[in-house]
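Reviewer 2 asked us to include a model.

Predict the structure of this chain.
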Amino acid sequence: MATLNESTEIKRNDIIGSSAVSIVTANVKVAAGTAMARGTLLTTTDGTAAATVKAGVADCILAADVSATDTVATVYTKGMFIRDLLTAASDDTVVAHEAELRKAGIYLTAIKG
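Predicted model (structure tokens):
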């Protein structure tokens, strides 16, 4: 018989907030030389994604960690994600990009209690 584990612990990889919005992914180019963690806000310019800077417009979320040698990454382009588990640049916040993400089809929600 299977048992249900009712742990309320949220792990870093559990960034998807709901299945109410269909998840859509895409593969994009990334510049080699920068490692980034899953959940990083990205800005895509001319088909290449980079971590969103404070003045940038976030349009996707990194779907899996990338190493400094990777040149292609999978990103989420649509879906619902937990805002507190996403990452913005050190001088930026995820909340500052929420309206532009919504325009792209990416919705943010709170951690489920």
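The first helix runs from residue 98 to 103. Helices lie at 98-103. We have added this to the supplementary material.
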